[in-house]
Write a structure and sequence with these properties.
The chain is an alpha+beta fold. Helices cover 31% and strands 10% of the residues. The strands form three sheets. A four-stranded antiparallel beta sheet has the order 4-5-7-6. A two-stranded parallel sheet has the order 1-8.
């Protein structure tokens, strides 16, 4: 029977190999967690290669990647989201760690704990679907550069409420979009679920939309903390009901 130390040494060997091929982006921590599994699937050609960490300058947007001209997003139904993103579960194999990349601005959890770098600190609320991690990082980076550090923190974009969370929607019923790790909550304490106003500026929300993340507040008139990579069921009288979805987002 193999010992725990043997498993750690094999994990280190495999992480080192995957790093050498350009597939593994994390620390050599001897732990075959979500990033190692994600890299292994990418190495085998089963999944796209996860995006590398983004270096964010203070004022220059030229170093950022470019958003897609069109994001095709599934409808907010269990069948459509599963077909598009994979089977939801408490520990799916498609998660990757997420954190804001600027050295002077780190994300905080809902309990005020400082999140570590993109290699992760093993908390599941520090992970999103790997297909969205690069986009989400780039969106927050552009908000940071566009608003500046002071306004970025005034609006509360550095306050993180979680991404992957296998659960039902608030109020019960079908699974939440968080169950797939395809929705993120930002600054939840100042933007609680039932609030009708938000700390987030229209400029910042527009940047999130440009990167393919739709606003819960604009979809339903509440839940302003919530941004998702799914076309929502739109409430009558809401911003999206009156103005339509952004032109760069269409239903898959």
């Amino acid at each position: 029977m193999s010992k725990a130390s043997d498993n750690e040494e094999f994990a280190l060997f495999w992480q080192t190999h995957l790093r050498g091929t350009g597939h593994y982006l994390g620390n050599l921590d001897k732990w075959a967690g979500p990033m190692t599994k994600s890299a292994s699937r990418a190495f085998a050609g089963l999944d796209p290669q996860p995006a590398p960490p983004i270096s964010v300058p203070d004022t220059d947007l030229s170093g950022l990647p470019k958003p897609a001209e069109t994001y095709r997003l599934p409808a907010e139904t269990t069948a459509a989201m599963t077909a598009f993103y994979g089977q939801p579960s408490k520990s799916p194999d498609y998660l990757d760690y997420f954190s804001f990349p600027h050295l002077q601005t780190r994300l905080y959890t809902r309990t005020g704990e400082l999140l570590k770098d993109r290699a992760g600190d093993l908390r599941q609320d520090h992970s999103c679907h790997r297909l969205l991690v690069g986009r989400l990082t780039a969106a927050l980076a552009e908000i940071y550069v566009t608003l500046g550090k002071e306004q970025f923190e005034r609006e509360g974009w550095h306050l993180y409420g979680g991404c992957h969370n296998y659960r039902s929607k608030t109020g019960g019923g079908s699974l939440s979009t968080h169950s797939w790790g395809i929705a993120v909550d930002m600054n939840p304490n100042e933007n609680p679920y039932a609030a009708t106003k938000t700390t987030f500026s229209g400029v910042a929300i527009g940047i999130m939309e440009k990167w393919g993340f739709l606003s819960g507040g604009r979809a339903w008139g509440l839940d302003w903390m919530h941004f998702q990579a799914v076309t929502p069921n739109i409430s009558a009288g809401s911003y999206y009901a009156k103005n339509g979805l952004p032109k760069n987002i269409v239903r898959a």
